[in-house]
Design goal:
Belongs to the YkuD family. This protein is about 40% helix and about 15% strand. It has about 450 residues and is an alpha+beta fold. The chain has an eight-stranded mixed beta barrel with strand order 1-2-3-11-9-8-4-12. Strands 5-7-6 form a three-stranded antiparallel sheet. A two-stranded antiparallel sheet has the order 13-14. A hairpin with a 2-residue loop joins β2 and β3. The protein is globular and about 80 Å long.
Length: about 450
């Protein structure tokens, strides 16, 4: 903690010099801007990173009238931060005690995944199996202190009952899977085992970094906004601190990572055209047209001459598709509204330099997957018209949904402008506390945790 105090003192001094600057991690367009911008961001971030943990383990709860009044005025985000700091202290304590021992995959999965045996199935009884279940129960017990782990002493105490994979163990496994974004089936296979083998020290570090991220977000907390947590693959509509709706999303694959930034939804388009990006047009579609000259016609794609909205069309037979080079195309590909349009029935626009937006998708099968990093960077939304409905209710425009449904059913492209622009935040939180106060973790799908943690550590060591 002495190092923490020194880092905190130093960063607070730096913070005072920069107290008028509002900073956050982001993207940069030039090397010069990257250098100065990152330095500014780290000054504030480092202070936020270390200060919350000074004395966190000694926090004492109280029920005095003043404390109760403060609690009633505490925002949902502040409550979440408090829960995350408590979890940080919990995992740090385990790490300081030597951490938990990684589970041996060869031992645990030797006879297949561990699961609750069906009533009519034959139970596999072997020393290896009992040893595997004992190791599992011991590991779960370190994180779930309510789990009875007395069976783990069976080898030392003859009177003890050996560990079995019973309903209680299965229930804890399911809860663990839910908190880590895994398939919730109560079965310990390779993915669940990998999550179980993440050290407590690493979880504490993950929480520390994300506490910083949430503290930097706190200034953006407003009456109503849309929040997309990229690693969680989830969108939330939040109004006056209450989550009104939660929907699954598909985000960019690692090679087309969805950026983190904040903006305002200004409008949405029902039955949108897809203005195909130049990269996709030249790298992905051109080779398909070269192989199949009817590809554009079969997929309802037209070529507009001078812009995406130009009414003059170009004959695809006049273009050398086979020798087209990446990013070298003088015209504009547009996919017209239809059932196979990748934007589906609606898209929500918040004009930004990343050309990222939220939209429907005809590929609904992706929402059945636990890993939903699969798009070209835009956000595909499950049940997309529910967001329009929430916007109509929030902004008091009762007739809006009637007009939206009419346009959708007529299959005509129509744009609806919001009465008031709605804030939207695309965040990258790999750890957070949910509405039940339980800490969740997700994979660092874009390897941003490592980058950001390294930057914070470098500043804190100054």
């Amino acid at each position: 903690m002495e190092t923490d105090h020194r880092a905190a003192k130093h960063t607070v001094q730096l913070r005072k010099k920069n107290q008028r600057r509002i900073l956050s991690f982001g993207c940069f367009s030039t090397t010069e801007k990257r250098t100065s911008g990152m330095a500014k961001r780290l000054i504030v971030a480092a202070a936020s990173f270390w200060l919350p943990f000074v004395g966190v383990a000694s926090t004492v709860s109280t029920s005095t009238p003043k404390a109760l009044e403060e609690a009633s005025n505490t925002s949902a985000l502040q409550t979440q931060l408090k829960q995350m700091k408590s979890a940080y202290a919990f995992y740090s304590s385990i790490a300081q005690q030597g951490d938990w021992k990684p589970l041996d995959e060869d031992l645990l999965l030797r006879d297949g995944a561990l699961r609750l045996a069906a009533a009519d199935s034959e139970t596999i009884n072997s020393d290896d199996r009992e040893q595997a279940i004992t190791a599992l129960v011991s590991r779960l017990g370190r994180e779930y202190t309510s789990l009875d782990t007395s069976c783990t002493h069976a080898l030392k105490a003859v009177s003890s009952t050996p560990c079995v994979f019973n309903e209680n163990v299965e229930s804890v496994v399911r809860e663990f899977q839910r908190r880590h974004g895994l398939l919730v089936d109560g079965v310990v296979g390779k993915n669940t085992l990998a999550a179980l083998n993440v050290a407590a020290k690493e979880k504490a570090q993950q929480l520390a970094l994300n506490i910083t991220r949430l503290e930097m977000f706190e200034e953006k907390d407003s009456d109503a906004y849309v929040l997309v947590n990229i690693p969680e693959y989830r969108l939330r509509y939040i109004s006056k601190g209450e989550v009104k709706a939660t929907k699954d999303v598909v985000v960019g694959k690692p090679s087309w990572a969805t950026p983190s930034f904040s903006d305002h939804i200004e409008k949405f388009v029902v039955n949108p055209e897809w203005r195909i990006p130049l990269s996709i047009a030249t790298k992905e579609i051109a080779p398909k047209v070269a192989d199949n000259p009817k590809y554009l016609e079969e997929n309802n794609i037209v070529i507009r001459k001078n812009s995406f909205v130009d009414e003059e069309l170009v004959d695809p037979n006049t273009i050398d598709w086979e020798n087209m080079k990446p990013y070298q195309f003088d015209h504009f590909l547009v996919k017209l509204p239809n059932e196979k349009n990748p934007l589906g029935k609606v898209k929500y626009l918040f004009p930004n330099r990343h050309a990222v937006y939220v939209h429907d998708t005809p590929y609904q099968q992706w929402f059945k997957e636990t890993n939903r990093a699969a798009s070209h960077g835009c956000i595909r939304l499950q049940d997309p018209f529910s967001l329009a409905k929430l916007i109509a209710e929030e902004q008091g425009v009762e007739s809006l949904m009637d007009n939206v449904i009419s346009a959708r059913d007529l299959r005509q492209s129509k744009t609806f402008h919001l009465k008031e622009p709605l804030p939207i935040h695309l965040v990258y939180w790999t750890a957070w506390a949910d509405a039940d106060g339980k800490v969740n973790f997700r994979n660092d799908i874009y390897q941003r945790d490592r980058r950001d943690a390294k930057a914070l550590t470098q500043v804190a060591s100054l």
